[in-house]
Write a structure and sequence with these properties.
single chain, about 350 residues, alpha/beta, Cobalt-precorrin-4 Transmethylase, domain 1, Rossmann fold, about 15% strand, globular
Length: about 350
């Protein structure tokens, strides 16, 4: 059956943390002679990873795979303390592209562990973010899968229990565990500000609204993207057929049988050109429209050490050509307006 309309969720795709990480790695490929190394995938998207591999970035899962003296970036998902120290000892330059929201959770883990709390961490076993967070205080923290809940969890002291979460969880996943924990441990301690990523929550809210208007929801994103998988679960929990796809090539014709209106969104690490290709593949007879729920204006600056390199590079270039315009913004001042999509165009050129 021919698709009549496509409703495209807004916001969708890149969040501020992904924007920062992609731009940071793009700068790394321009400042340093290759290869540039990256610990874990810079973000969980196959297309983005392949694009950086195309310009010589080498992604590794162990620090000892990085040659001594090589430039190294740590991924947006956050790294264990021993990874950070090992990277510093081995690499000539280490740029940590961890999302500030993940850093906030790491700080909470260390603070709560220092204060003697048993910490329940709601997250997905093996996910890069969860691995790095648990490693901050492994003797004080217990990972709990959101699907499994607290089960028979028993703390050392029921009056000294804290609860934290992986930033990419679905709100409904988090709430179920939180409600149970509050019931079982009345003195439960939590972060003053929600651990859940604003972008994850916003995208899930948009999907909830889309689900009421569509016959099918398609979510663009990679299989190892937790927030992408959460979007699929949210749509299904609201009674809608939903599928995750890496690209338009993954769409199966049988999914479109009897479907007039398709809802379309993308995980926080999925490039927007993949969304456009899905629209082209569906070729809706009545076109597409943006389904806007909230406007995002968050911005995360480049990592501090990278900002220093960029500033130094600009000063050297200006000195070399004896051309400096004090009234004109430099590269860092223009970073807010330079998008990750534009950065990937540089990488893919």
């Amino acid at each position: 059956m021919t698709v009549e309309r496509v409703l495209v969720a807004e916001p969708r795709g890149f969040c501020a943390g992904v924007e920062m990480a992609i731009k940071a790695l793009t700068w790394m490929t321009r400042i340093f002679d290759g290869p540039v190394y990256c610990y874990h995938e810079i973000v969980h998207n196959e297309w983005v990873v392949r694009a950086f591999e195309g310009v010589g970035v080498v992604f590794v899962d162990h620090i000892d795979q990085v040659p001594e003296g090589a430039p190294l970036m740590l991924s947006a998902h956050g790294s264990a303390p021993e990874v950070v120290s090992g990277a510093t000892a081995r690499a000539a330059v280490v740029i940590d592209a961890v999302c500030p929201l993940v850093t906030k959770v790491h700080h909470e883990v260390k603070r709560m562990a220092r204060d003697g709390y048993d910490i329940i961490y709601v997250g997905h076993e093996g996910h890069d973010e969860a691995v790095g967070t648990v490693a901050e205080a492994p003797s004080a923290i217990q990972l709990v899968e959101p699907e499994s809940g607290l089960g028979d969890y028993q703390p050392n002291d029921p009056a000294k229990v804290a609860l934290l979460a992986q930033t990419t969880l679905g709100v409904h996943e988090w709430m179920a565990v939180m409600d149970d924990a509050r019931l079982r441990f009345p003195q439960l301690q939590m972060s003053r500000k929600s651990d859940l990523c604003y972008a994850t929550t916003n995208r899930q809210d948009a999907v909830k609204q889309l689900a009421a208007e569509c016959d099918l929801v398609l979510v663009v994103g990679s299989h190892n993207s937790s927030n992408t998988q959460a979007l699929v679960r949210v749509a299904r929990d609201h009674g809608m057929a939903a599928h995750r796809i890496d690209s338009a090539d993954d769409i199966e014709a049988s999914w479109l049988d009897g479907v007039a209106v398709v809802g379309l969104t993308a995980g926080a690490s999925a490039p927007d050109h993949l969304v456009q290709e899905v629209i082209d593949r569906l070729s809706p007879t009545e076109g597409f429209e943006l389904w806007s729920t909230i406007e995002e204006q968050e911005y995360f600056p480049l990592p501090p050490q990278l900002r220093s390199f960029v500033t130094t590079l600009q000063q050297l270039i200006e000195a070399g050509v004896t051309a400096r315009d004090p009234g004109r913004d430099g590269w860092l001042q223009r970073d807010r307006d330079w998008t990750a999509t534009e950065a990937l165009e540089v990488v893919s050129a």
